[in-house]
Amino acid sequence: MDNKLSKAISKCRDEELEHRDVGLEQNAQLAPGYEAMSEVIKAGCRTAIWISERL
Q1: Is 7 within 8 Å of 1 (Cβ atoms)?
Q2: In the chain, at which end, N or C, are there fewer CB atoms within 10 A of the end residue's CB?
Q3: Cα separation, 38 vs 50, whole angstroms
Q4: Which Gene Ontology cellular component terms are annotated (predicted)?
C-alpha cells in the first residue's frame, strides 16, 4: 500500500477511535437509541469493507 494512503487511513482511524472514546466518556451509551444506532453503523462499516474488498 502507498505510504501516503496508509498514513491517511491511520489518521482517519485514530480520529474515529478518539471520537468514540470521547462519546463513551460522556455516557453516549445511555442516549436513547444508542444500541440501535451502533448496530446500524457497524453494519454499514462491514458493508463498506465488503464492497471495498471486491473493487
Answers
A1: no
A2: C
A3: 18
A4: mitochondrial inner membrane; nucleus
